[in-house]
């Protein structure tokens, strides 16, 4: 099902582009630059993921990631399980943990 939703994977130049297509990367709002103590910095705010994405792909990836996290520990599932356990310690928001897991899964598969 994932392959059917993605189509030709070579159309995506990087895992980041595929992550954006799947809607698992938070949006970034930039509004110019600010100067703090002589250092020029971009003003960036990260928001929720874009609603302009392939919703079926996002759903399928979410189910896949949750299945991997909940399954037995094997060589195939271990990287995502370890990653999920690590982010559970630092991120309390369930939505953020799920999005980071999906992003990790996409980067792992490419």
In short:
The protein has 110 residues and is α+β, with helices and mostly antiparallel strands.
Largest sheet entry: 2 strands, antiparallel
How much of the polypeptide forms β-strand, as a percent range?
15-25%
Assembly type: single chain
Number of helices: 5
Shape verdict: globular
Q: Calculate Rg over CA atoms.
A: 16 Å
- By helix and strand content, what is the structural category? alpha+beta
E-strand count = 2
Which ranges are low-confidence, i.e. pLDDT below 50, for 5 or more consecutive residues? none
Give the overall average pLDDT: 78
Order of helices and strands: HHEEHHH
Strand order of the largest sheet: 1-2
Overall structural domain count: 1
Q: Helix content range of the residues, please?
A: 40-55%
Alpha-carbon distance between the termini?
Answer: 16 Å
Fold and architecture overview:
- It is a single chain.
- By secondary structure, the chain is an alpha+beta fold.
- The protein has one domain.
- 53% of the residues lie in helices and 20% in strands.
- It has a two-stranded antiparallel sheet.
- Strand 1 and strand 2 form a beta hairpin.
- Helix 3 crosses helix 5 and helix 4 packs antiparallel against helix 5.
- The longest helix is centred in the middle third of the chain and has 16 residues.
- The protein is globular, with a radius of gyration of 16 Å.
- 16% of the residues are buried.
């Amino acid at each position: 099902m994932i392959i059917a939703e993605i189509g030709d994977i070579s159309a995506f130049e990087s895992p980041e582009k595929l992550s954006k297509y799947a809607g698992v990367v938070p949006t970034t709002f930039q509004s110019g630059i600010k100067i703090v103590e002589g250092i020029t910095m971009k003003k960036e705010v990260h928001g929720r993921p874009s609603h302009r994405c392939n919703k079926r792909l996002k759903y399928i990836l979410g189910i896949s990631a949750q299945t991997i996290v909940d399954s037995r520990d094997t060589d195939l599932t271990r990287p995502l399980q370890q990653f999920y356990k690590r982010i559970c310690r630092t991120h309390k928001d369930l939505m953020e943990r799920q999005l980071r897991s999906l992003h990790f899964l996409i980067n792992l598969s490419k």
